[in-house]
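Review form for a predicted model. The reviewer records the input and the model, then writes brief findings.
Reviewer: anonymous (R2)
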Amino acid sequence: MDTTPKTGTANGQGGVPGGGAPGTGASTSTVPSSGVPGGGLRDIVQLTLPAASAYLSVLRTATASLAARADFTLDDIEDLRIAVDEACALLLLSAVPGSNLECTFELAPGVIQVAVTVLSLDGEPPSTDTFAWTVLTALADEVSSSVTADPRVTIRLRKRRGVPEDRVPENRVPENRVPGPTTAETRATTTPWTGNAGAPSNGPVGAP
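Model under review:
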């Protein structure tokens, strides 16, 4: 089996999702950038992999690479990578043997949307009462699922970019925090006071 990734355009050539037989290997394609509301460009990257857990490492690597390209923080990259892996694991439970796992990344300024789709045996969306779904909702900002008549089941994730710590100005105070007292003020409020401080050792103050 040839698992060498292939690239192509959006016309279905060169291994674009839906353009090859199931299980023939991994393929990728990049759709030309287009404008998005509010300004900026949107890049769409599509990957097609055999619906088997052995190929999820390829998807995890691609997810981390795209998130890094979008200037996500290290924590956000790891969260998105785990979320995509968890979504795929959920879908593979009911995937038709020999079918493909299709993953589409939409990269816009400050946000990445991921849609993972498989041809399903039962045509049922993942249960939202499971621990795996709880993990998804904790790692991604938005999570949803849908089913088509094929039946194909899709899980969609949306992750917004956080602000890297090394880019926060040194003098900036977080919005949810109030500047604390200065060192002198802290010393003044924490130094214990004794009633005979400074009094003569033989005087009446502090005597038994």
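Findings: The mean pLDDT is 74.
Further findings: The longest helix spans residues 74-92.
Recommendation: see findings above.
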